[in-house]
Design a protein that fits this description.
28% helix, 3-stranded parallel sheet, 82 residues, alpha/beta, single chain, 5 strands, 2 helices, two-stranded antiparallel ribbon
Length: 82
């Protein structure tokens, strides 16, 4: 499962759009090509998540990948609580 901030995963009707979606689709294709037969049924799922919980959820084992766009804002420089 891949996590992304709520603002990075958009929808256009029934279709997903956005930078995170494009990255996850490309990563899925690369995994399938590298793993070949065992990865035939591999599907990555994007779960839009609160930005403050992205890394915490990966650390807890709730997801495998976190994708977000880090900015220079001071509040985002602290990626995980101490």
């Amino acid at each position: 499962m891949a996590l992304s901030p709520l603002s990075s995963t958009g929808r256009d009707g029934a279709y997903q759009r956005g930078l995170t979606y494009d990255r996850v689709v490309e990563f899925e294709k690369a995994l399938k090509a590298r793993l070949a037969a065992p990865a035939v049924h591999l599907t990555l799922v994007i779960l839009p998540t609160n930005r403050a919980r992205l890394l915490l959820m990966v650390a807890e084992g709730a997801a495998d990948i976190a994708d977000w766009h880090v900015t220079s804002r001071e509040q985002e420089n602290t990626l995980a609580p101490a």
